[in-house]
Design brief:
- The complex is a heterodimer of chains A (276) and B (186).
- Chain A has 276 residues and is mostly helical.
- Chain A contains 11 helices and 2 strands, in the order H-H-H-H-H-H-H-E-H-H-E-H-H.
- Chain A has 2 domains: 57 residues; 152 residues, no CATH class.
- Chain A has a two-stranded antiparallel ribbon.
- In chain A, helix 9 packs antiparallel against helix 10.
- Chain A is elongated, with a radius of gyration of 28 Å.
- In chain B, helix 2 crosses helix 3, helix 4 crosses helix 8 and helix 7 packs across helix 9.
- The longest helix of chain B has 26 residues.
- The chains are: A mainly alpha (276), B mainly alpha (186).
- At the A-B interface, helix 1, helix 3 and helix 4 of A face helix 2, helix 3, helix 5, helix 6 and helix 9 of B.
Chain lengths: 276, 186
C-alpha cells in the first residue's frame, strides 16, 4: 500500500461517516470507483456504521418528564454553596454521603438555615410573626434558651426537608419503573404473549421496602403526598406480584389502570411540589 | 414569535430564570442523548443534563454572543461526561463494577417489537463496549458525529480541536469500531 493510497483511506472513512461534502466528497467517490480495495473497505465501514445507527441510544428519550428535569435544575441553582452534583447522590435516594457524618450534617444545616428559617418566621406556638416595618419588627436579642430552641427547630425542618426530598426521589424512581414497564417488550422463554418483567418486579419490591421507610421517617412531612403515594404503592404491588415471565395482557391491564388514574402526571406534579 | 437561543442566553446572563425553561425544552433531549451515548448510564446522563443547565445558568454572562448556543451546551455536557466517565473508571479500578449496565440498556432497547428490542439490546451492549475501548479523543469525536450528527467543523469548534485532528480521530475510531464489532450483523 502506498502513502498516496493511505491518504485516501482517511477520506474513505469520512465518506462512510457521511462527513464529506462538495468537492471532497466527489473526489473520494471518484477514487472509490477506481479502487477495488477502497470499495470493499467502504462497504465494510458502512456495515459497521449501520450497526451504530441501530443503537437504540440514538433515539433514547429521557425517562423523566422535562418538567421534573427543569425543577431539578432550578433546585440545584438554589442550593447555596453547593458542590458539583455528584452522580452518586443526585438521582439515587438514600445514598446521601453528605449526611453520613455529624460535621457534614452541620454543614448542610448551616446551608439550609437561611432557607428554612428566613421566609417562615413563626412564634414558638406556631402562630406567624406579624410583618411590620421599623425597629419593632426586630425580635428581641436571643437568650441561650432561644438558641437551643432555634437549633432544634432548624433540625426538625431539616428532617422534614430530607423526608420530602426522599419522597420526591422515590416518586421519580417509581415513575421510571412504571414508564419502563409500559414500554417493555422483552419476550421470555415461555413463549408468545409473555414478557420478561423480572427486573421491574425486583425494582418494585425494592421501592415498596423504601415506601415503608418513608412513612416511618416523617408522616407529617409527606402527608400531602399520601394519596399519590398510596396509588403508586398499589401499582407497584401489582407489578411486584407479577411472575417474571408475565402475560402481556396483565401488563396491558396495568397500563390501562395507570392511564385511568393519570398517575404519571400526578407523580410528576407531586414530586415537584415536594421539592418546593 | 419564539425567542431565539441567543435571546434566551442574554436573559440568562441577566439572571432571568424564566429563560431556563424554554432553553431546556429546546435542548435537553439532545444533551441527554450525547451524554447517554458517552456514559451509557441513564442516571449519569440525567446528571449530565442537570449539570449542563446549572452551569449554563451560572456561566451565561461568560457566553460569547458571537457563538452558537447548542455547541456551547454540548461542550459543557461532554466535559461533564468526560469527568464523570473518568471518575467512574477510577472507582471501577478501586472498587466493584460501576453497575451492571442493564437498566440503561433496557430503557434504550424498549421498542415496539420484541425481536427488534432484543437486537437493539445486543447492539447497544456491543457498541457500548466498543466505544469504551476507544481513546477519549476518538470517542468524543465519534459520539458527536454519530449520535449528535454534528459536522466536522462543528465538532472541531465544540471540542476545540483542529479540523485535521477531528478527521484523523474519526478515521481511527471507525476502524477500531469495525474491528470490535466484527461478527455483529445489522
Amino acid at each position: 500500500m502506498t502513502l498516496f493510497h493511505e491518504a485516501w483511506r482517511r477520506e474513505v472513512s469520512l465518506l462512510a461517516c457521511g462527513a464529506l461534502e462538495g468537492v471532497a466528497r466527489a473526489a473520494a467517490l471518484d477514487h472509490v470507483r477506481s479502487c477495488a480495495s477502497c470499495r470493499l473497505e467502504l462497504a465494510a465501514l458502512r456495515e459497521t456504521l449501520e450497526l451504530v445507527a441501530a443503537d437504540p441510544v440514538r433515539l433514547a428519550e429521557p425517562p423523566i418528564a422535562s418538567s421534573a428535569l427543569i425543577a431539578r435544575v432550578q433546585a440545584a441553582i438554589d442550593r447555596p454553596g453547593r458542590e458539583p452534583i455528584a452522580a452518586e447522590t443526585a438521582w439515587r435516594p438514600f445514598a446521601a454521603p453528605a449526611l453520613r457524618s455529624a460535621a457534614a450534617a452541620a454543614a448542610v444545616l448551616a446551608a439550609l438555615l437561611p432557607l428554612t428559617l428566613g421566609p417562615r418566621l413563626e412564634r414558638q406556638d406556631g402562630s406567624p410573626v406579624p410583618v411590620v416595618s421599623g425597629p419593632a419588627a426586630f425580635p428581641p436579642a436571643p437568650t441561650a434558651d432561644d438558641d437551643t430552641s432555634v437549633s432544634l427547630d432548624a433540625l426538625e425542618r431539616l428532617e422534614i426537608h430530607i423526608a420530602r426530598e426522599h419522597a420526591a426521589r422515590y416518586l421519580n424512581e417509581a415513575q421510571d419503573v412504571l414508564v419502563t414497564l409500559a414500554a417493555t417488550s422483552r419476550d421470555c422463554e415461555r413463549g408468545e404473549g409473555r414478557v420478561d418483567v423480572g427486573e421491574e418486579a425486583r425494582r418494585s419490591r425494592a421501592l415498596l421496602a423504601r415506601r415503608a421507610l418513608l412513612v416511618e421517617m416523617d408522616r407529617a412531612a409527606v402527608a400531602s403526598a399520601r394519596p399519590v403515594l398510596e396509588d403508586v404503592e398499589l401499582m407497584l404491588r401489582e407489578i411486584a406480584s407479577l411472575e417474571s415471565c408475565a402475560r402481556r395482557a396483565d401488563l396491558e391491564a396495568i397500563s390501562r389502570e395507570l392511564g385511568r388514574r393519570r398517575l404519571l402526571m400526578k407523580m410528576d406534579l407531586m414530586a415537584r411540589e415536594l421539592q418546593g | 414569535m419564539e425567542a431565539s437561543d441567543r435571546d434566551l442566553m442574554g436573559r440568562l446572563a441577566l439572571g432571568d430564570r424564566g429563560a431556563l425553561e424554554p432553553l431546556m425544552e429546546r435542548h435537553y433531549r439532545r444533551i441527554y442523548r450525547v451524554a447517554l451515548a458517552y456514559l451509557r448510564n441513564v442516571d449519569d446522563a440525567l446528571d449530565a443534563v442537570q449539570e449542563t443547565f446549572v452551569k449554563a445558568f451560572r456561566n451565561a454572562a461568560r457566553w460569547d454572543p458571537a457563538s452558537e448556543v447548542a455547541p456551547w451546551l454540548v461542550r459543557i455536557a461532554v466535559n461533564h461526561s468526560i469527568d464523570r466517565y473518568r471518575r467512574g473508571r477510577r472507582r471501577l479500578a478501586r472498587e466493584e463494577p460501576l453497575d451492571d449496565g442493564d437498566h440503561e440498556l433496557r430503557m434504550a432497547a424498549a421498542g415496539p417489537s420484541a425481536e427488534r428490542a432484543v437486537f437493539g439490546r445486543e447492539v447497544a451492549e456491543r457498541v457500548a463496549e466498543a466505544l469504551k475501548d476507544l481513546p477519549a479523543k476518538q470517542r468524543e469525536v465519534f459520539v458527536l458525529r454519530h449520535y449528535d450528527e454534528m459536522s466536522l467543523d462543528e465538532i472541531a469548534q465544540t471540542l476545540g480541536m483542529s479540523l485535521g485532528t477531528v478527521k484523523s480521530s474519526l478515521h481511527r475510531a471507525v476502524h477500531r469500531l469495525r474491528a470490535d464489532l466484527e461478527g455483529l450483523k445489522a
